[in-house]
């Protein structure tokens, strides 16, 4: 129970408490005229002159015991007191010592005590009163004596002695009776004797001096005696007359009176007034206000009160959090209720409340998801801790369902493995949870993790469909790991699983097997599987059918079944589809290989005419040139090759086209023109096979022209050929190459290094750098590999340029050297002859530009990625994420939201979690806090495996709660992150927001504390003063 601060105020200057000095004011007709003049001056309070006169009388009357001398000494001492002279007390004491038997001794003692009392020197007054025997005083003066001595004791905190004196006055009819009753009552109150205190205070209700004060005491005593009706009644009258400063505290007392009588409607306006007008609310105040709202079914207001109780850990807090949780439930805010029940469960003052809260935490975790703990663990922990609970059966049912419905498959599986599947139902739950966790890993391209989890799901083959699907997706994961033999076995396991032939994935497994055989080089079996797939492909996606037609054609093409290959290519071309240009090009190659050269020429001309932006235009022009060469149409051939050189100078076919132009001139006998072209090949493409071929043909031309000296001079200037060292060069290279083909990089590297040491400009210089790069990469010497790839990438265009750019850009990117990665990807984009490498370059440029905050370029490349054919789903999602985040950086919130919504709708991996977070943040930034919360809960409930984005969302949730003035939820949410996360970035952000909330609330408290409120610190009437003047 709380107590009001009741201060007894003050020293007494009393109503008109005179000094009632027993002076004889009558005028004596004294024989000594000097004495009469001195008395007259004294009576007129002219103490300086009077004291001088009395001093002269003392000198002129040396008789120590004469009456006039005694009187003169008496008045001389009194004058010293009135004039507050330093020797005043000494003069009085000297008088008492000199005249102990004089009747003036009692008078001067009484006067001295009153003198000190009137000047608030209570210690001195007390000492002088104690020297007196009150019986010598007239009966009428005795109440004054007892009160003043009692009050002096009171002011010196000698309360027992004060009571002894004051009790002599409380029943005596005198002007001191009211004051005595007040101070006696006050002492009784401070001693906890409220009944006695109340009796005296009640008697003073109508007293003009104490009447305004005692109602505060009486009200407080009613409060302490739990006399609620009396408190409510007396509080009303007190509130009507209370000052602006005292009114809030009085209102609180009235509110508590009604509260304790369970009259909540009546209590509410008084509590609200105290909240609005009073000082900073304490936890108990918020609890009473919140509970009053709760009992009057004002649940929103109750939430606003209960959630102000943030850091308490006592029984009051446990009750407050319990009712807070119930308020959330009544508002259907289950996630918030879960947090509040969690706080209840952590405080075990009331065991019944703790048990109920633990159950509700587990139940709500199951119903709405728990971002901090696995629902299965919560339910199992409750079952273990409360085996006799009334909620036991209900919790057990929830536990089974939790494992089947939770989407936090990782934590659910961990929990279930710890407990062990104990029933057939739990075995089925284990199978489904492990399978879904494997699918999560698969969607995130974590192939080995997915394989491990598919394997776990097969431990309990309760659901045959899931068993079959596990084998199928294991095959898919193995294929992506290039473990083709194991993938073939897994596809076979899927196909022989009971009921698999009726499964929708059965025909798809043939498509997968076709790719396995294709990658293994078993083109015959590949074609067989693809054809089986195509025979049953009526329900399949066009994209897969189109791709299967192409791969079937490729399989026959590689095995020289050109006629059949051509048929499948033509079927693919007729479908249209993303690789129609490839189908046309391959069909043209088949025509040529079938001896139908003109048909090949016609089809290639149609390709470059109808699809001028195709990736195969450079291939088509080059092949067209070869077709014209075969047909003897040299001019058309030269023109076709020139289109390659003009339009695709960085193409793989550029050096071949130039070389073929030289050959056409040479074969036509136009030697001078041939020499110009061949020397151009050597200049532009040194160290290439074409350069070596060009040198060999040029040698023949020079010989035919009889100009061997010119040839020799020319060859001497070439650093990639040396006639004299060529044979030794080749032998050294052959030795190193044999080790390389044996697959032993530890033996190969010294031989390759030896070659480069001996022949830094050797014929096989490029080959050696390439093989060394491959070996270094294989043994994880990535720095060394990058060095060699860089050499190849920076050399003149050669047969390794493209792969070197591909690998160096990858290595720079993996090292997070975004600038160099960007440079290499840009070169790869310009030079790539293979479409797949060009795709890789564009993807890399999208990523590196985004990493370097080059948003405009990143957006450009992301759009190019999205225009690609046969785009992987996860790559498509990544491109949309980059578009969204780039728009966010540039302030285009509309585009950002549109792109994030696309990803949220299409993705099923980490990109979806990221999109959900940013959509929630966009709503927060727009001030749509409740909509932001909905999106956050959706993320937490449906994608709990992505802990980074889950934690980011929780921090955003705390910020939402703060904006909505739900301090409890804001702090609880941040505390959970600080307790559970081990990510330093997340922890730092959570601390920053928790500190920001604390600072903001402290500022509010400081502003509230500036309000001057009197918490019934009762002041005495104006006649009383609290401070003792020692001057």
Write down the CATH topology of the domain at 294-406: Serine Threonine Protein Phosphatase 5, Tetratricopeptide repeat
Which strands sit side by side, in order, in the main sheet? 1-2
Contiguous low-pLDDT stretches (5 residues minimum) are 1-29, 1015-1031
- Enumerate how many helices there are, as a single number: 53
- Total count of strands: 2
Task: Summarize the topology.
Layout: E1 11-12, H1 33-43, H2 47-60, H3 67-82, H4 88-98, H5 104-118, H6 122-130, H7 142-155, H8 159-166, H9 177-190, H10 194-203, H11 214-224, H12 228-241, H13 247-260, H14 264-277, H15 283-295, H16 299-306, H17 315-330, H18 334-345, H19 351-368, H20 375-385, H21 392-405, H22 409-419, H23 424-443, H24 447-457, H25 464-480, H26 484-496, H27 506-520, H28 523-535, H29 542-558, H30 562-575, H31 580-593, H32 597-610, H33 617-630, H34 634-647, H35 653-667, H36 671-684, H37 689-705, H38 708-716, H39 726-741, H40 745-758, H41 765-778, H42 782-794, H43 801-814, H44 818-831, H45 835-851, H46 855-866, H47 873-889, H48 893-906, H49 910-925, H50 929-942, H51 947-963, H52 967-980, H53 984-1009, E2 1024-1025
Helix pairs in contact: 1-2, 2-3, 3-4, 3-5, 4-5, 5-6, 6-7, 7-8, 7-9, 8-9, 9-10, 10-11, 11-12, 12-13, 13-14, 14-15, 15-16, 15-17, 16-17, 17-18, 18-19, 18-52, 19-20, 19-21, 20-21, 21-23, 22-23, 23-24, 23-25, 24-25, 25-26, 26-27, 27-28, 27-29, 28-29, 29-30, 30-31, 31-32, 32-33, 33-34, ...
